[in-house]
Amino acid sequence: MSQLTSARYGKDNVRVCKVHRDEQTGVQMVVEMNVCVLLEGDIEQSYTQADNSVVVATDTMKNTVYILAKQHPVTPPELFASIVSTHFIEMYSHIHAAHVKVVTHRWTRMDIDDVPHPHSFLRDGAETRNVEATAREGQGLSMRSAIAGLLVLKSTGSQFHSFIRDEYTTLPEVFDRILSTEVDCGWTWKSFDGVEGVKAAVPKFDAAWDAARSITLKIFATDSSASVQNTMYKMCSQILEAVPGVMTVDYSLPNKHYFEIDLSWHKGLKNTGKDAEVYAPQSNPNGLIQCTVIRQEQAAKL
């Protein structure tokens, strides 16, 4: 005997580009997104009885995203994600939760002869601004904002030593090394009662993203890092201090290793320690360090 315990389905990789044109100034703005929609609700019979009468077609979800993008602002992405997720639980009485993820890609305005161009852009990196919003019937909206794909490197100011050594350990202690990672940083907001609550908070979303990004870059660059663990904890703590509406901050940082190359076999050429200049970038395996930090008042309730 079997029983379905959970189910959700939807449309992924809905690619959307919206152009806003200011008729008075001639300045245009481009926003490009990937959207994922997943629905939950009274849909068990579509799995267990081959009854599609409860299925909102995933193609319908795609069309809905396009229509809502035309009818509503798509920035900040927190607002658009809340509009899309709320639409599905209000439109379909048997759908009780809608999960929407919006990934916004970079299009940075070009400077031509030191003047911002009104309608030309360049993609200056793989970094994305991500939002995951869940609308639940009778429970409001939960939301996580994030920075992803931000690749950073510093050539000094990082160390790693005094770790556990045993019969399995070959890693040497390092007192100065290259540190590189691809930042995945997220922050979870206090729950919102609905879309109107999100609209009231709109100015906070861009400010929070700017603060999280600036704090991440500043601490990465300036911290004399004893470990990735300690550096990311400092980042989390400062973001919580800078953004009052945020309840938790999390990081996932892969350690992109750059190893010294011993060239002493070639005529005694020195290229280790203080003489190191040439390194071998590594792809895998790599360290992966993660953490989540919450406010003290939350921890006291747990």
The dominant shape is: globular
- Give me the secondary-structure category: alpha+beta
Widest beta sheet: strand line-up: 1-2-3-6-7-8-9-12
H-E string: EEHHHEEEEEEHHHEEEEH
Features:
7 helices, 36% strand, two-stranded antiparallel sheet
What does this structure look like?
- The protein has 302 residues and is an alpha+beta fold.
- The chain has 7 helices and 12 strands.
- It has helices at 44-48, 58-71, 77-91, 195-200, 202-222, 228-242, 296-301, and strands spanning 9-21, 28-41, 95-105, 108-112, 115-122, 128-136, 140-154, 179-189, 246-255, 258-260, 279-281, 287-294.
- The strands form 3 sheets. The protein has an 8-stranded antiparallel β-sheet with strand order 1-2-3-6-7-8-9-12. A two-stranded antiparallel ribbon has the order 4-5.
- Helix 5 (202-222) runs antiparallel to helix 6 (228-242).
- It is globular and about 75 Å long.
- The mean pLDDT is 96.
Lay out the secondary structure.
Blueprint: E1 9-21, E2 28-41, H1 44-48, H2 58-71, H3 77-91, E3 95-105, E4 108-112, E5 115-122, E6 128-136, E7 140-154, E8 179-189, H4 195-200, H5 202-222, H6 228-242, E9 246-255, E10 258-260, E11 279-281, E12 287-294, H7 296-301
Antiparallel strand pairs: 1-2, 2-3, 3-6, 4-5, 6-7, 7-8, 8-9, 9-12, 10-11
Helix pairs in contact: 5-6
Task: Provide a quick synopsis of the model.
The chain is an alpha+beta fold. It has helices spanning 44-48, 58-71, 77-91, 195-200, 202-222, 228-242, 296-301; strands at 9-21, 28-41, 95-105, 108-112, 115-122, 128-136, 140-154, 179-189, 246-255, 258-260, 279-281, 287-294. Helix 5 (202-222) runs antiparallel to helix 6 (228-242).
